Amino acid sequence: MRASLLIFALTLATTLQLSLGQDVSCTRGDGKPGYCMRKSQCPKISNMIKQRRLRNSYTPEEITYILNSVCPGSKELVCCEDDEKVAEGLQMLRDQECGVFSFAKTFGGSEVELMSRPWMVYLTINNNSTTHMCGGTLIHKRYVLTAAHCFNGRTLHSMRLGEHNLLTEPDCKVKRGRMVCAPRVVHIQRGQIFQHEEFFKRALAHDIALIKLPQDVVFTNSVRPICLPVNETLQELATTMDKFFVAGWGHVRPNVPSTLLTETIVPNLNMTDCYNSFNGISPLTTSLLCAGDVRHDSCSGDSGGPLSHVTELYNGVQRFVQFGITSFGSPKCGDHHPGVYTKVGSYMRWIAYKIATK
Ligand SMILES: *[C@@H]1O[C@H](CO)[C@@H](O)[C@H](O)[C@H]1NC(C)=O
Ligand SMILES: *[C@@H]1O[C@H](CO)[C@@H](O)[C@H](O)[C@H]1NC(C)=O
Ligand SMILES: *[C@@H]1O[C@H](CO)[C@@H](O)[C@H](O)[C@H]1NC(C)=O
Ligand SMILES: *[C@@H]1O[C@H](CO)[C@@H](O)[C@H](O)[C@H]1NC(C)=O
C-alpha cells in the first residue's frame, strides 16, 4: 500500500515537473525566484557563456550560479532571475496614473458612490451551462487581476468594466438635486487567462491570475486602474495597516447576492490571530493576508476582488493600493472566521514578469 502510494506520488511529481515549461515560475537553488527559459534568453547566463568563450573557463562563482539555475524537469531550460523583465513590468505599472478616486465616501449603508471605484471588474465564468461571478481589478490598460480558483475547470464568459448596478444601464444617481450618470458599461467577451503556475500544486496557495484583455481599454471616469505595491515600502504596509476595504458585488448576507457595488471595512489580523481563528488547521503562509471579524467579512461572491487601502506613499498623493485578492474564507460570511487573501506584494515579480512578457 505504502509502496504503491509512493510510486503514484512519484509519477504525479514527474508529470507535474514535465509540465514545467518555458516562462513557468521556478525557485532557484539559491532560493531566488525565477522563470524557466532557454539559456540564450537568460541575460545573466548568456553573458557568462559569452565570457567563457573569451576566457575559456568559468569562475567558481559562475559555476555555483549555473548549478543553482536548474529548471525542474527540464534539461534545455534554466531557472533564470530575469530582473530586466521584472523591472520593465514594474515600470509599466509605475508609469500609469492609478488608484485615483473621486469620492472616498460611500452612500448610506455599504453601497459605494457611482464611479468611485473605477478599477472594479465584474467577471462571469462558465461552468458547463451555469455561470457564476467573481470580482477582479483593472491594474493596467491591458490587464485584470483576479483569483486563480475562479477558473478552476471553467472558462471566462464575460467581463464588465465601469459597472455599478448590475440591473440598470446606464447607472445614474441623483446628487445634490442633479442626475449624474456613469459612462456606459464596457463589455469584454474575451481574454487570455494566466493562472499562477503553482496554483494546482496545493489547494488554495498562489491563488492569483491575470487576464490579458484583447486590446487596451480606454480610461474614463468609470474605468481606471488601481495601484499595486510596486516596492518594499508599499509591500510592508500590508502588515502594518490596521484595516482594509473590501469591494465587490458579493453576497451582502449569506445567499443574498447584491446587485450594487458595495464596500466593507475589515480589520487586518496578524498571522497568529488568523491561525488561531482557524484552530490552527489552515495552511497559512506568509504570502497570505487575513482580515475580517464576525460582522465584517467578504462573502463568497467577492472572490478575486480587491483588499485595498488609501495611502499617501504612492507618489505623495492619496491613492488606492491593492494589497490582497479575496481568496477563501468560510462559505458563510461573518461567522467568526476571517477572510483569507492572496498577498499581492508577494507576487509582484510574478505580475511584473507576466505583463512585460505576455
Ligand atoms: C459546476 O457546477 C456544478 C453544478 O452547478 C457544481 O456541482 C460543480 O461543482 C461546478 N464545477 C466547478 C468546477 O465549478
Ligand atoms: C455538462 O453538461 C452536459 C449536459 O447537461 C453533461 O452531459 C456533461 O456531462 C456536463 N459536463 C461536465 C464536465 O459537467
Ligand atoms: C497579534 O494581534 C494581537 C491583538 O489583536 C496581539 O495581542 C498579538 O500580540 C499580536 N501578535 C503578534 C505576533 O504581533
Ligand atoms: C515606492 O513606489 C511609489 C510609487 O512609485 C513611490 O511614490 C515611492 O516613493 C516609492 N518608495 C520607495 C522607498 O522607493
From TrEMBL:
Q: Which GO terms describe its molecular function?
A: metal ion binding; serine-type endopeptidase activity
* Domain Clip positions: 25-80
Q: Where in the cell is it found?
A: Secreted
**SUPFAM superfamilies from the entry?**
Trypsin-like serine proteases
Q: Which PROSITE patterns match?
A: CLIP, TRYPSIN_DOM, TRYPSIN_HIS, TRYPSIN_SER
Q: Which SMART domains match?
A: CLIP, Tryp_SPc
What's a GO cellular component annotated to this UniProt protein?
extracellular region
* Record flagged with keyword Transmembrane: no
| UniProt keyword terms in alphabetical order | Calcium, Disulfide bond, Glycoprotein, Hydrolase, Metal-binding, Protease, Secreted, Serine protease, Signal, Zymogen
Is Metal-binding set as a keyword in this record? yes
Checking InterPro entries in the record gives: CLIP, CLIP_sf, Peptidase_S1_PA, Peptidase_S1_PA_chymotrypsin, Peptidase_S1A, Ser/Thr_Proteases_Immune/Dev, Trypsin_dom, TRYPSIN_HIS
Task: Provide the GO biological process annotations.
Answer: protein maturation; proteolysis
Q: Which positions fall inside the Peptidase S1 domain?
A: 106-356
In the record, which residues are listed under signal peptide?
Answer: 1-21
CDD domains in alphabetical order: Tryp_SPc
Q: What is its EC number?
A: 3.4.21.-
Q: Which portions of this protein are annotated as coiled-coil regions?
A: none
Similarity-based family: Belongs to the peptidase S1 family. CLIP subfamily.
Protein name as it appears in the record: CLIP domain-containing serine protease
**Phylogenetic classification of the source organism:** Eukaryota, Metazoa, Ecdysozoa, Arthropoda, Hexapoda
